[in-house]
Structures are given as structure tokens and as C-alpha cells.
Design a protein that fits this description.
The complex is a heterodimer.
Chain A (H helix, E strand, L loop, with lengths): L4 H20 L6 H14 L7 H36 L7 H8 L14 H30 L13 H19 L10 H42 L6
Helix pairs in contact in A: 2-3, 2-7, 6-7
Chain B lengths: L3 H18 L4 H38 L8 H18 L8 E4 L2 E4 H36 L5 H18 L6 H10 L1 H25 L12
Antiparallel strand pairs in B: 1-2
Helix pairs in contact in B: 2-3, 3-4, 5-6, 6-7
The chains are: A mainly alpha, B mainly alpha.
Amino acid sequence: MKKWVPTVIFLAVAVVLIVLAIVFLPVSKSVWVWIAALLTLAIFSILYRDNPIYRIAEHIFVGLSLGYGLAMIWHLALWQIALRPLFVEGRFILIIPIAIGLLYFTRLIPKVSWLVRIPISIALGLGSGIAIPLIFQATIFEQTKASLVLPEMFAPGNPWPGIWAIILIIGIVTTLAYFFFSRKEKSVLSPVSKVGIIFIMLGFGATFGLTVMSRVSLLIGRVQFLLREWLGIIAQ
Amino acid sequence: MKRRIPLTLTLVLGIVMMIQFFIPHQFSQDFKNTALEWLRVIGGFAFIIGLASFITHHYTKIKHKKEGWAYSPIALGALVVMAVVGLIGRSPNMNWIPVTVQGQQISVFTYLFSNFFTHMMIPLGATMFSVLAFYIASAAYRSFRAKSLVSILLLVAAFVIMLAIIFYNVLPLGDLGEWLLSVPNMAAKRGILLGASLGGIATSLKIILGIERGYLGGTK
């Protein structure tokens, strides 16, 4: 069988089903709903196998996302922060970041291509300098503070919050011990890291379960869209 | 010079931004806000370079008729259409070719931009992620084999969470799921987060001190 035959059969079946739907069902009259529905079906066609319809939808998505990104970057960063204040309000200091940003384009000129390192180094320097104290404050201190075992957690008659807090701190310490790779294979930390792997596996399992459910929830959303907004089979 | 200037810039700016954090003065705060604004502007140009790379890649594919070249014009076309519609449609003072939508007069570009986003980008993205539900189930079937204690724990935790979400009100599954999320899962997540944060600090320090020089590229 030729490579394109399954795709043609798939398309033919899809067209027949759509025609039947138009004739017998209260389908949507909105062009945009039709576009959304056909693109949804095009993406679902990957469940059969890789095919041109899927690839077209995939490339449309990539192009649209980049176009959207460009429009957003232009309006929210380049125009709003740099060009409008420079040309409309006369804030000439903004020539500096614009000039630094333009240095990215020296990458296209081999003789001066090393200048591209300047915007990269400025971005990395500023980013790293901002990140270090921020990580300490927002992550390390806050997460450590939230993990403290406090006496009021052991209220008379309900000591469970305190017990869970102790288990939590054991889990954090043992998880960190598991990721301490520079220890020797049979060090004091080995049994501790074995406890750590139990917590890690429970955590990964829970995360996996949540991920599956979020994907299933998206799937339900798409099927509901097809049946409700597009075909009108289920009530609005 | 080609390496020294970027390394010096990284070192100086990194140290200045770290010191800035500890100066509780309006000038220091304004300095940080300006630095963040400049970062956004510089980042905007980096995006354009990425875009140029995307266009070059697809142009080369079309030119040399490489495998799958027929899809490249579609990607480029979608990019151009969305970019034009977005650049004009999002501009506040441009009301070109007005159309009436729900009693309101808006530019046709604004109308198209809004609909491209709502009826094309969102359904495409949501469907792509929803398709993962099938692949994730198939991956789980292959990898979730109860061979050892740790794999049993993984399996049980995943099932408990899934069942807890479905039968939330059926006790004790809901409570068990919540406990699993808030105690062992939180412990593992927090441990990993703390480890990653320490790693992030170490990497940032390595960049500032010039130990990590990957961003300079291979040439002198």
C-alpha cells in the first residue's frame, strides 16, 4: 500500500463524517469554531500515526506561537519600555540598552561577531547578581522556615500536625542526602539516602498522578468542545 | 580583549547587583528596576535573533528541498500573518479597517489577532498537551512494573493520587491523597528545590567569577 493511501482514507472518512454532522446535527455556524474543531481533530490524528495533516497543524502552531511572541515582545518590551520612552518622552538614556541589544546582530558579521558576547555577558551578570540573594531569600530561607517543627504543632489531643512536620523534615534531609553525589559509596549517609529514595519515589509517583490527571482534564476539555461548541450534541 | 571585556562586565555587574540587594535605599531600588527594564529590552533583541534563526532554518529547508520542506512555508506563513496582525492589532492608536463585533467598533487586525489566539493557538496547544494523556498512559504501562519496593511505592502513590482526584469525596481516599501530597511529596519536592536552589547559586557564582565560560563560545 502506498504511503499516502491511509491519509487519503482518513481524510475521506473525516469529510464524510463532517458532512453527516452538518446534515443531522445542530453544528456550530461560527467559522472560528469550525477552524478550532478542525485543528483539534488534526492534532488528534497523531494518535493514528505521524501524518501530513498533523504536521500541517503542528507547523501552524509553531508559526503562530512565534508570531504571537514577536508581537508581545514588540509591544511589551521593545516599544513600551525602550522605543516609546526614547522617541516620545525623550529619555535618551535608553539608547544604551537598545545599543547593547543591537550588538546581538553582530553575530551575523563574522569580523565583529565576538561583540555578541557583550549583551550575553551583561544579561548573565545582571541575572546572576539578582538571582543569588533572591534565591536565598525566596527559596532557601522561606522553604526552611516553612519546614520548622514548632511546639504549637503538638496541640493536646491532636499531635498529628507535629508528627507530619517531623516526617516532612526527615524527608527533606534524606532527599538532600540522596542527591549528595560526592559521598563515598559506603559512607554514613548511605542508609540515610535509602530512606530518601522512599520519599523521592512517593513524590514522583504523586507528581506523575497529578500530571496524568491534568492531561486527562485537558482531553475532557477538548472532547467537550467538540461535542458541545462544534457538534452541539451535549447541552451548552 | 575579546574575552576579558565580557568576563569583566559579568563580574562587575554581578557583584553590583548582589550588593544592591543589601542597600535599602530608594536609589538602590530604582537602580534595580532600571536594570530589570534594560534586561527586558536586551532580551527582546535576543528573541529577534532567535526568530532570524528560525526563518533562516526554514528558508534553507525550502531552498534545498530538504525532507519535509513543504511544511516550512506553512510555518513561515503562520508566523508572518500572526506577527503582522499582532503588531498592528495590539497597537492602541491604530484603528485600521474597522469592523463591528458585538456592537463595538474594532480594527480588523485586533479582531483577527484575538480570534487567531482564541480559536487557533489555544485549541492547538491544549490538544497537543491532551494527546500526552495517551502517551503518558502507554509510558506508564511500560515503566510501572512492581519489581522492587521503590517501584511499588511509585506505582501506589500515582494510583492513590489519581483515585483521590476522581473519588475525592469518598473517604479515606481524598484524605490519603491530600496527606501524600502535603507530607511525603512535599518533603521530596522541598528537598529537590533546596538542592536545585543551592545548585543555582553555585552556577551563578561560577558565572560571575568567570569559572563557567560556556557562554563565550569556543573561539578566542
